UniProtKB/TrEMBL annotation:
Transmembrane segments: none annotated. Gene3D superfamilies: Cupredoxins - blue copper proteins (2.60.40.420). The gene is LOC109724483. The keyword Hydrolase does not apply. Belongs to the multicopper oxidase family. The lineage of its organism: Eukaryota, Viridiplantae, Streptophyta, Embryophyta, Tracheophyta. This is L-ascorbate oxidase homolog. Coiled coil: none annotated. Residues 34-148, 161-305, 387-526 form the Plastocyanin-like domain. Keywords: Signal.
């Protein structure tokens, strides 16, 4: 029952043999996943996709707060592969984060066993392949974390709980997308939108696909909607049904009703939907927003006993415009009284009162390096290194591999030429930091931070100035892990850097991320103590400059 790493106090209790669940023998969920190529035809023509155990999207993980999740991933692709766990905080454990800066990729024909705990978290998340442009080929799936039995959930248990993965979809294979980007071409517009791997209609006949979801009149259902796409924000709605928002990126929200929701790249939202309309089929709709083109996917929701009433062909249009979406964002509030597991309850209740120790302003830009299209943050276009930064730190060879802070906390001269280099900043452990994401470009941006939740406190048009802080929500901003930045606007987030590790902050737009609009944030514990960070796991894959180096002494 007792595991290594327990505090002395807990160890004592373990030895005495009472209080069995002190450091948790939290339950274990085991998975073995085979990652392969397969052929799918979501848009009516065959395409190569990445499957997990033959499925696209991949299997759902249904877990409960503090469960240990063990996934042995076998890579049967002809190229390296890694999975990352969008929104799972990996407390003290960036070893399992599954991105190029923390993990060596699983070589073709190899396997790696992820082992992590969904510590103090609840809500709706997903996993996805993080290498290159593989996410454009699938390999993603839902990951839900239920509240533990004794923790009250701020709404009645729904009759069923559905995962709805929405995302734009490309007609080209991920390898051809990679070649395009490598040669300096743009990714190009997506060919369609998918809901759980389907566009909703048979391309040849125009007939609706079979219903994706079945409901019974009089019951209420939970839908967990995540945007797993590569390029576009999506508006989500259900014909004739209102949606009560209850959770977003792992936090319970104030339960407002919406006719439609903008779900930006990398974001997840849970809504409750009452099946309170006349029994027939209804469309669920996901369509591109903030785009010059309009691509739409539908999925049929069937009321029990409604096989004879097809859905109305009037598909509700999405609202348009910056102002509508901005106002919707402003209506999102954290439910401060709802109980739920959270990593840092004391800090989070009063986040508005904590003194900011550092402000980092990151401005995205498009540019050219060696004549080829690149994207960057504060003038630096990130390139990953053959040695994951986390391993370079652990083995003490950072000086050879990369430099910290080649960008400043403010962008340098706007007309300075873009440079391509590993972009790693370092933040003092437990510092409370404000990050401004400023977008001078005419397209919507979306960012995701690994390892943390942050408070999305403010947004506004134009450039951020210190006076913009007057408009911050310092009381009940939603604690989340992904945030959009509207065209020619800024978004402000705040967080305490209390999770030691190497953490990726990235654009969720796949072409921008691939071509450098991302960076890593290093948070080190000067004490090398297992209180702050777990040791490198024994099965860690090694690559690059750390191969053959003596293993450093473990943390104590
Ligand atoms: C995974 O692949 C191995 C080796 O081909 C096979 O034995 C196993 O049954 C596969 N597992 C699943 C779940 O497909
Ligand atoms: C998910 O787990 C919860 C809690 O253990 C359980 O009640 C529910 O039936 C599970 N759902 C599925 C689809 O397995
Ligand atoms: C690969 O799978 C084997 C068999 O389950 C396991 O023992 C081994 O630890 C895995 N490799 C890694 C690097 O996790
Ligand atoms: C907030 O959560 C509480 C449960 O603690 C619930 O009773 C209340 O209805 C929720 N408030 C809103 C506005 O959703
Ligand atoms: C960042 O790393 C550099 C080089 O190790 C160090 O000199 C500096 O103090 C660090 N800064 C912070 C905020 O940790």
């Amino acid at each position: 029952m007792c595991r290594r790493g327990v505090a002395v106090f807990a160890l004592f209790l373990c030895l005495v043999g009472r209080w069995p669940a002190v450091d948790g023998e939290d339950p274990y969920l085991y998975f073995t996943w085979n990652v392969t190529y397969g052929t799918i035809s979501p848009l009516g023509f065959p395409q190569q996709a990445i499957l997990i155990n033959g499925q696209f999207p991949g299997p759902n993980i249904n877990s409960t707060t503090n469960d240990n999740i063990v996934v042995n991933v076998y890579n049967f692709l002809d190229e390296p592969f890694l999975l990352s766990w969008n929104g799972i905080q990996q407390r003290k454990n960036s070893w399992q984060d599954g991105v190029a800066g923390t993990n060596c990729p699983i070589p073709s024909g190899g396997n790696f066993t992820y082992h992590f705990q969904v510590k103090d978290q609840i809500g709706s998340f997903f996993y996805f392949p993080s290498v290159g442009t593989q996410k454009a080929a699938g390999g993603f799936g839902g990951l839900r974390v239920n509240s533990r039995l004794l923790i009250p959930v701020p709404f009645p248990a729904p009759a069923d709980d559905f995962t709805v993965l929405i995302g734009d979809w490309q007609a080209k294979s991920h390898k051809s997308l990679t070649r395009r980007l490598d040669s300096g071409l743009a990714l190009g517009r997506p060919a369609g939108v998918l809901i759980n791997g389907h566009s909703g209609r048979d391309a040849a006949t125009g007939r609706d696909d079979p219903p994706l979801f079945a409901v019974k009149a009089g019951q209420t259902y939970r839908f967990r909607i995540c945007n797993v796409g590569t390029k576009t924000s999506l508006n989500f709605r259900i014909q004739d049904h209102s949606m009560k928002l209850v959770e977003m990126d792992g936090s319970h929200t104030m339960q407002n009703n919406y006719d439609s929701l903008d779900v930006h790249l990398g974001q997840c939202m849970s809504v409750l939907v009452a099946a309170n309309r006349p029994p027939r089929d209804y469309y669920m709709v996901a369509s591109t927003c903030f785009t010059k083109y309009l691509l739409t996917a539908t999925a049929v929701i069937r009321y029990a006993g409604s096989t004879t009433a097809p859905p109305s062909q009037e598909i509700p249009p999405a609202p348009t415009g910056w102002a509508w979406s901005f106002n919707q964002w402003r209506s999102f509030r954290w439910n401060l009284t709802a109980s739920a597991a959270r990593p840092n309850p004391q800090g989070s209740y009063h986040y508005g009162a904590i003194k900011i120790t550092r402000t980092i302003k990151l401005v995205n830009s498009a540019g050219r390096v060696d004549g080829k299209r690149r994207y960057g943050l504060n003038g630096v276009s990130h390139v990953s290194s053959p040695t994951p930064f986390k391993l370079s730190e652990y083995f003490g060879i950072t000086g050879r591999e990369f430099r910290y802070q080649i960008i400043g906390d403010e962008p340098s001269k706007p007309d300075a030429p873009m440079i391509a280099a590993p972009n790693v900043i370092n933040v003092t452990h437990r510092n409370y930091v404000e990050i401004i994401l400023e977008n001078p470009e005419p397209s919507v941006q979306a960012y995701h931070l690994n390892g943390y939740s942050f408070f999305a406190v403010g947004m506004g048009g134009g450039k951020w100035t210190p006076a913009s802080r007057k408009g911050y929500n310092l009381l009940d901003a939603v604690s989340r892990h992904a945030i959009q930045v509207f065209p020619k606007s800024w978004s402000a987030i705040m967080l305490a850097f209390d999770n030691v590790g190497m953490w990726n902050l990235r654009s969720e737009l796949l072409d921008r991320q691939y071509l450098g609009q991302q960076l890593y944030i290093s948070v080190v514990s000067p004490t090398r103590s297992i209180r702050d960070e777990y040791n490198m796991p024994p099965n860690a894959l090694l690559c690059g400059a750390v191969v053959g180096l003596p293993t450093p002494p473990p943390y104590s």
